[in-house]
């Protein structure tokens, strides 16, 4: 006998889906409209076609910003994912220490992005900041305002401090879901700590690691508030990522056409790279 499905619940969800779709489509269509037109003010628009896209893809400024974004995301993933796994493995699984560690891990995630930027802007200063003052006291010339390398180090440390907790919490959730029987069997077989991690813990964390990598990549590739507050995209353009470049074009120069074209290309790049990440990792997970 064929099984019948009750789909009446969709009638309750449909209004919200329509509202979300409307709130997403209208701004997107506005951006598409601006990306194909030019204006000289007075609400007068002139058809430009794909000129803004052609100009954008031929711009060295755009490719330099995207290169900085890709490098930043690669560094962030290379640091935060292994560090998050390491911290999660060493967190207590039972007892009073569990809620304490979870609260401490969640604290950085509760701080607003602009506040995080302000904290690290002060923290890295040479005169009153703990980081800048003591690093210089060690004989290292540290100045994130003038030195591009120091600016990168500050932004990376800031992001690691702010977002490693997310990876830790996801990995910890995967670890505590592993039944004790797996560990008991490994103990009976005399498995080493590395073998337990490789054959028991890591496979069980694959799905949460997939979520962690996707979330951290998308967020790091779209980062704006924290580096803008700390460095403003400088010194020079050393920390000018695509998001900062986009805001400078749209609000600083008020070039709405090029900014709209850049935002669409930016969106498609994030969508494409996220899809590639998801496809590769889910395929690897299925094969494993």
* Count of beta strands: 2
Helix content bin:
over 70%
Query: What are the low-pLDDT stretches, counting only 5+ consecutive residues below 50?
Result: none
User: What is the C-alpha radius of gyration, as a whole number of Å?
Assistant: 24 Å
Percentage of residues in strands: under 5%
CATH superfamily: MetI-like
What does the overall shape look like?
globular
Order of helices and strands: HEEHHHHHHHHHHHH
Q: What is the arithmetic mean of pLDDT?
A: 87
Q: Give the class-level CATH name.
A: Mainly Alpha
Multimer state = single chain
Number of helices: 13
CATH architecture: Orthogonal Bundle
Distance between the termini: 36 Å
As laid out across the biggest beta sheet, the strand order is 1-2
> For the report, how would you describe the main beta sheet?
2 strands, antiparallel
Domain tally:
1
Structural class of the secondary structure composition? mainly alpha
Short structural summary:
It is built from 13 helices and two strands, in the order αββαααααααααααα.
Protein model, in words:
This protein has about 290 residues and is mainly alpha-helical. It has one domain (about 60-285): Orthogonal Bundle (MetI-like fold), CATH 1.10.3720.10. It is built from 13 helices and two strands, in the order H-E-E-H-H-H-H-H-H-H-H-H-H-H-H. It has helices spanning about 10-35, 50-55, 60-90, 95-110, 115-125, 130-135, 150-175, 180-190, 195-205, 205-220, 225-230, 240-250, 255-285, and strands at about 35-40, 45. The protein has a two-stranded antiparallel ribbon. The chain is globular. The model has no long low-confidence stretch (mean pLDDT about 85).
């Amino acid at each position: 006998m064929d099984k019948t499905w009750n789909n009446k619940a969709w009638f309750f969800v449909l209004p919200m889906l329509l509202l979300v779709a409307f709130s997403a489509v209208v701004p997107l269509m506005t951006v598409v409209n601006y990306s194909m037109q030019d204006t000289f003010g007075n609400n007068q628009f002139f058809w430009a076609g794909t000129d803004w896209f052609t100009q954008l893809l031929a711009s060295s400024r755009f490719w330099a910003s995207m290169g900085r974004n890709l490098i930043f995301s690669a560094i962030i993933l290379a640091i935060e994912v292994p560090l998050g796994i390491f911290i999660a493995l060493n967190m207590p699984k039972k007892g009073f220490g569990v809620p304490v560690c979870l609260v401490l891990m969640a604290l950085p995630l509760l701080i607003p992005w602009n506040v995080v930027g302000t904290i690290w802007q002060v923290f890295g200063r040479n005169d009153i900041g703990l980081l800048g003052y003591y690093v210089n006291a060690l004989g290292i010339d540290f100045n994130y305002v003038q030195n591009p390398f120091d600016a990168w180090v500050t932004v990376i440390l800031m992001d690691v401090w702010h977002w490693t907790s997310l990876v830790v919490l996801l990995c910890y959730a995967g670890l505590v879901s592993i039944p004790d029987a797996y560990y008991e069997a490994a103990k009976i077989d005399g498995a080493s700590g590395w073998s337990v991690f490789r054959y028991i813990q890591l496979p069980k964390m694959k799905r949460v690691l997939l979520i962690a990598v996707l979330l951290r990549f998308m967020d790091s590739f779209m980062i704006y508030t924290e580096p803008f507050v700390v460095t403003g995209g400088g010194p020079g353009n050393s920390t000018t990522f695509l998001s900062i470049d986009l805001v400078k074009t749209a609000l600083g120069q008020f070039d709405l056409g090029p900014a709209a074209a850049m935002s669409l290309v930016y969106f498609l790049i994030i969508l494409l790279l996220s899809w590639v990440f998801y496809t590769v990792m889910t395929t690897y997970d299925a094969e494993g």
